[in-house]
Structure formats: C-alpha cells, structure tokens
Amino acid sequence: MGKLIEAIESGLSVNGKEILQGITIEIEQGTTVAVTGVNGSGKSSLIKLLAGISEPQTGNIQRYFTSYAYVPEHFPEHLSFTVRNYLQLLAEMNGSYKEKEIDYYTSLFGLEPFLDTPLKKCSKGTKQKAGFIQALMKKGEVLFLDEPFTGMDEGTVQIAVDLLMERKGRKTTVFTLHETELAYQLATHIAVMEEGRLVSCLPVKQVSRMMEITYRMSENRWQAVPLAEHTYRLVVEETESDKMIGEILRHNGHIIEVKGRGER
Ligand SMILES: Nc1ncnc2c1ncn2[C@@H]1O[C@H](COP(=O)(O)OP(=O)(O)OP(=O)(O)O)[C@@H](O)[C@H]1O
C-alpha cells in the first residue's frame, strides 16, 4: 500500500475568508476515509482540496493518483441530457463504455423508468443515483463522495451502502457523511472537521477508544482546538483521559463535557 494523498499545513481562503486551515493528512491506498463534522465545518471544502478541485494557498499538497471520480453534494441543475445519455456520455468520455454495466447499475438502482427523462426533470434522488452510478463506472483510483446519500430513500441508501462496503479496505474512497453510525460501518478511518480544521484522522478502531474533553481555561496550554473564547477541546486516548482531566483541573480549568469520540 502506498500513499495517494499527502497534505501538509494546507490552507484555503475564498474571498478573504479562511475556509480550511493547517490541513495535514495522509491518505493511503485502499483506505476508506469518512469526513465527519457539523454543517459548515469544511467537509466539502476538504474533499475538493484532496481531489484537486481546489488548490491550497498556503502549505502544500501532493496527489499521487492519476484519476479520480467525484460526486458533489448537489447534482448540477438544468442538465438537459436524459439519464441514459448522461451515463453513456460519461462512460464514453472515460473510455469505459459498457452497455451491460449501465444496464446493471440502472436496474440495481431502479432507474429504468427514468432512462429517457431529462435530468433537469428528475427528482433529487434520481439525480443522485445517476451521479453515484457514473462515479462507480469511472473506476478512478480514488472515489470522492460528498454526502452520497442525500435525497436517497432508505432502500436506495442500502444499495449504495452495499456497493461501498464492497470497496472497503480495497479501493480508496473519501466521503463526507453526517450519519456517524454509517460512517463507522463504511470507513476504515474517521476524519473530524471543526471550523475549517482537521481535528483528527484515525483508524476506526482507535477512534472508538478516544475521548473528547471540552473545558474552559484562561489559556490554551496543550494546543487544544479553540471552540470559543477560553473554551477548548482535547481528544485523548481513553487511558489518558483521567490524567488529562486532572491536569486541566490543576490549571484552574473547568470541565464542560467528557464523551467518547464516537458518541454524538
Ligand atoms: N465558495 C465559497 N465561497 C465562500 N464561502 C464558502 C465557499 N465554500 C465554502 N464556503 C464556506 O466555508 C465553510 C465550510 O463550507 P463547507 O461546505 O466546506 O462545509 P461542510 O462541512 O461541507 O458543510 P455542510 O455539512 O453544510 O455541507 C462554510 O462557512 C461555507 O459557507
């Protein structure tokens, strides 16, 4: 297994606003990274940075892959192509046109009734399925998915989950997801974004042993993540958490919350 992406202290600003700060991450071939975090924490921006859709203004990033597929959170509006033409065109562009493969995926996702419907007239879920299928058919070295299950009904989510489970541990995938439980099922690594910073990116097994300590203190002694004025968060191994809490109290800090990393 080799490194496919390496970002060092990468930062990105748009119109003078810092969107990503100090992003340092390594993504190994064959890993599945779930990027989690609250709305606006920078998950989509991180995916675009990793894919090369945007470039950092500070720090640097090396991408060692030659091809990728990307599914945005929102499928482009106003596309006049029919579902069939869209899938055929993209498959042809990738040099991997296989009618049977299109048939297989459209049947799996129940898209047959909509094959001749222009995308702009399709529901959000139908468009999402078409985006998902074209990305799978592309067979890029890395698959980037931004909230892949947006707009999908329960049955469709299960089909998409099964397809992603087949890739797990074999084909490199990076996706954003709100549902923490699903992220833990699908991913080998969990990345956590907070206010444009990557707080951690750890193997799932390790994350379940990590504790988050949120506390108030007059100064930031341990390079904790600042949440608000005098309010910080530290992520430590479960075995270290009592010792850390002791340190915080010794420095006149106040504990606000202590919880397991996987708890939401
Ligand atoms: N092109 C842009 N211009 C200005 N601000 C932007 C742009 N793209 C992102 N932002 C801002 O950067 C921050 C992070 O946005 P981003 O979409 O990456 O977050 P997110 O975690 O994916 O959010 P969500 O869960 O709502 O999809 C937000 O405050 C957003 O408003």
UniProtKB/TrEMBL annotation:
Q: Which keywords does the record carry?
A: ATP-binding, Nucleotide-binding, Transport
PROSITE patterns for this protein: ABC_TRANSPORTER_2 (PS50893)
By its UniProt entry, which InterPro entries does this protein fall under?
AAA+_ATPase (IPR003593), ABC_transporter-like_ATP-bd (IPR003439), ABC_Transporter_VariousFunc (IPR051782), P-loop_NTPase (IPR027417)
Indicate whether NAD appears among the record's keywords: no
UniProt cross-references to SMART domains, sorted A to Z: AAA
Q: Name one GO molecular function term.
A: ATP hydrolysis activity
Q: Name one Pfam family in it.
A: ABC_tran
ABC transporter domain: from which residue to which, for each copy? 2-220
Cite the PANTHER family for this sequence.
Answer: ABC TRANSPORTER ATP-BINDING PROTEIN ALBC-RELATED
Q: Spell out the protein name for this chain.
A: ABC transporter domain-containing protein
Q: Which organism is it from?
A: Pseudobacillus wudalianchiensis
Its taxonomic path starts at: Bacteria, Bacillati, Bacillota, Bacilli, Bacillales
